[in-house]
Amino acid sequence: MVLIYSEPFERWKCTYKECGAQCCTEGQKVTAGDIRRIKDVTGKRPEEFADLNEDKGLFRLKGVDGRCIFIGEDSSCTIHKTGVKPLFCRMYPFKFDGIIYADEIILKLRVVKNCPGFGKGDEIGDDFQICIEELGNKFVKEIKDYLRAKSEGKSNDAIFG
């Protein structure tokens, strides 16, 4: 389940070149599925780009000088066009606001208020909210899949493929 806490906004566009990708910081949360997809496309070993010290089914991307390891010198995401950009990055302008681990895992998202892309770009429609919810549900599913695999005794090597 995904809970979205959002102040209304009508327009948003990623303006990473204007802001220098200020949202793309070191330590962004990723799922085991994200790690597997990135590994498969880039050919990198998971430990090259992710901190594999798992915390309740989540991992963190490594960085360089406080920025995400996948941010290029021009502030663009070097894996964006490959289709393996982490789920949480694809949910932007919503940020991680916590997870409730109960009978059901609940992902809490909150809109990022200081993003310079607000008020720019195309009008946000219902399909945008649906897309964010779908990505959030996939994020939760991947956490559940990882936790189940670990409870079955699978190693990270087996899980990451």
Describe this protein's structure:
By secondary structure, the chain is an alpha+beta fold. It has one domain. The chain contains six helices and ten strands. The chain has helices at 16-19, 32-42, 46-49, 87-90, 126-151, 156-160; strands at 2-5, 11-12, 29-30, 50-55, 58-61, 63-64, 67-68, 94-101, 105-111, 118-123. The strands form four sheets. A three-stranded mixed beta sheet has the order 1-9-8. A three-stranded antiparallel beta sheet has the order 3-5-4. It has a two-stranded antiparallel sheet with strand order 2-10. The longest helix has 26 residues, at 126-151. The protein is globular and about 50 Å long. The model has no long low-confidence stretch (mean pLDDT 88).
Radius of gyration: 16 Å
| Run of helices and strands | EEHEHHEEEEHEEEHH
Give the overall silhouette. globular
Using DSSP, what is the number of strands? Answer: 10
Spatial strand order of the main sheet: 1-9-8
Give the structural class: alpha+beta
Please give the share of residues in helix: 25-40%
The low-confidence parts are none
| Average pLDDT reading | 88
Strand content: 25-35%
Distance between the termini: 27 Å
**Largest sheet, described in full?**
3 strands, mixed
Helix tally?
6
Give a brief rundown of this model.
The chain has 161 residues and is of the alpha+beta class. The chain has 6 helices and 10 strands; from the N terminus they run ββαβααββββαβββαα.
Features:
three-stranded antiparallel β-sheet, single chain, alpha+beta, globular, 10 strands, 161 residues, three-stranded mixed β-sheet
